[in-house]
Each structure stands twice: as structure tokens, then as C-alpha cells.
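Good day; I would like, with your permission, to put a structural problem before you. The record follows directly beneath this note:
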Amino acid sequence: MAIISSGAGVRPVEEDGADGTEPLLEGGKGLVDRLHAQLHEMLLTHEIPLGVPISERQLSIRLGVSRTPLRETLRRLEGEGFIQRNNGVLEVRRITLEEFLELLKIRRLLEVEAAGDAAGRIEPHTVADLRKALELLLAGEVRDNRQRVALDLELHRAICDACGSRSMAELIEQLRRRSMLFATPPVPGDFRQTVAEHLRLLDAVATGDKARAREAMAEHLDHVLDNILSRLMKR
């Protein structure tokens, strides 16, 4: 049985395709694609931490797969620039502050436009699910930081998916993935500001107010930059 990430955690998927997906054949493309998707999520939520050596043996045991498809997946991630070899040791690649600022600048241009385009187009049930999850987070009922990060990814993806442009959504996703490779020390409590911004953004998109949606996204990403710089100054 392989373990596949579902964003907020992991879920088991039968290898015989009993869940309606293609079978997870050992060493086959189906398994490698699923491993690639899961490891991406683990990188984005820092479940695989920055600066910690990646052990193929430990990962293969943890994910319930052999090392052959795992090696193929890791080579793929290395080719995409998400992991690297440092003196022969495999680890998550860290991007520089300069790279992060460049990525955030491009993200701001695209995500502000995407938020405006998504206004009035996001499904009501998606809005309801996201609002409920954000309110639980704000109430302190979600304490796992990985779940907080996963919810952040889910919200931004939902907006991008509703923007009407697959090319824009894919480009934003690539930029977000790379920007997550920049690490800063955590600041307790600042997630509440982020949640409040997400709720304002979600409300603007849900009501179809394009101008307010763009404004809310711009404000949110500007605060992301301010928080990052504030953390760096406290080092």
C-alpha cells in the first residue's frame, strides 16, 4: 500500500486501483507520478525540512515503496531544482533572499490579476469549505503548522483554478512552489493576520467584487513580504 498526500495529511491508496485510480505498479509511471505529487506537497509544507539530509531508506519505509521508483522521483525533483546534492548528500534546495523577492514580485503581478478574474466564479461549496477551515484555524483548533501551510496552498489554488486561465494557474503554482523553498524563522501569532487576510480575500472573490478581490490579494502578498523582512531583521 502506498501513502498519498491529500494536502491536509496523508491517506492510504490501494495499489490495485480499488479507489478508482490507475494501479500503482511498482516502478511504473503511475507510482512515480503519485510519489512526485506527494513529495512536492511534503516539500511545500516543510514536512521534509530544509537543510536536513534526505534519506532514501527512511523515505522508502515511510512511504511504503521500494527505492527504485523513489530514486526516479528524487531524480525528477532534482532536475526541477527542488532538491540538490551537497557534497554527495541529497537535501532540499534553499533559494536566496534575492530569488525569493523576484518570485514574490512576479507572483504579485499574476495572483492579483487571477483574484480579479476568479471573482464570482469560485464554487459556493468550495467557498464554504475554505471559510469553515479558516474559521477553525482562527479559533485555534488547528495547531499543526503543516496543516496551516496546506490550507494556505488550498486557498490560493482554489482562486487560481477559478481564474479561467489554466496557463496562468499553472505558472502561479510553479512560482509558489519555488518560493516555498525560502526559509525564515517562525513568528508565533502572525498566522492570525494571514487568516484574517485570507477571509477578506475569500469574501471578495465569493461576492464577485473584482476590484476588492485584487485589492485583497495585493494587500495579502504585501504583508507576506513585510513579515518575511521582519523575521529576517530579528535573526
Remarks:
- The chain has two domains: 2-92, 97-233.
